[in-house]
Amino acid sequence: MMQALISDSQSKQLTSKAVQVWLTKLRSIALDAEIMLDDFGYELLHQKIETRKRDKVRSFFTSSNPLLFSLEMASRIKNVNSSLDEAYKEANQIGLHPVELIIRAPDHKEDRMTDPFVDESGVVGRVDDVSRVVNLLMRSDYKKDLPVISIVGMAGQGKTTLSQVVLKDDHVVNYFDERIWICVSDDFKVERLLNEMLNSCGEIKIETTNREELVRRLHEKLKGKRCLLVLDDIWNENGEKWDCMRKCLLEIGASQGTKYWQLRVVMWLPQ
């Protein structure tokens, strides 16, 4: 529910001072919750270490006492929940209403990043996530003509950064002959995506919207190659367009001389 309110607030914060104040307060609550989780993780680690020190007696009044810590955490959780309840009431007072998360604000849309090179510091602590995706990509037992891996998550969780780190992983670099990353955004045009695929393969940009010509050129360019296609920031859920894109990819990989077309598609979708 709170995420839905945030979606509404993002379309109004440029024109409403009250919404800006509300968002600032909400960020403060989120920070308190994050600090609380960090403290909880630290205490768990601390208690594991303490259990190994059987020869030492822990004072009841030390900060590491489990009972006192549990009471403190319960109080902090209650405070965060109370703050969120208050923020929800204030949201109604300033005219914010829950919206479906798939709805995008048409105004004040920020340009999304379309360059597949980012600061990898955002992936610290997510090595396991990278490994899971890489392992899925390296599997050889796919029984479909077009294996698709879908990664779903809310906006701001680092899916884009993660996808680009996967692209530069040594195993992925060595396994795939071509690695293509495309920011789909909500401007979903099959011809645009095919054109960007050609550009990523080193082709000079061609000014054509002829789908058949684009498919033919990609077929020639990728013949006999292993290809990884990452489609990032997908918002459009038009089934007909996606079916058209799928058919194009199957045509690109047709008659490659292998039992299965060596293309892996990774789709990063909002939750």
Automatic annotation (TrEMBL):
GO terms for biological process: defense response. Residues 1-54 form the Disease resistance N-terminal domain. This is Disease resistance protein RGA3. InterPro entries: NB-ARC (IPR002182), P-loop_NTPase (IPR027417), Rx_N (IPR041118). Gene3D superfamilies: 1.20.5.4130, P-loop containing nucleotide triphosphate hydrolases. Keywords: ATP-binding, Nucleotide-binding, Plant defense, Repeat. Residues 128-248 form the NB-ARC domain. One of its GO terms (molecular function) is ATP binding. SUPFAM superfamilies: P-loop containing nucleoside triphosphate hydrolases. It holds the Pfam family NB-ARC.
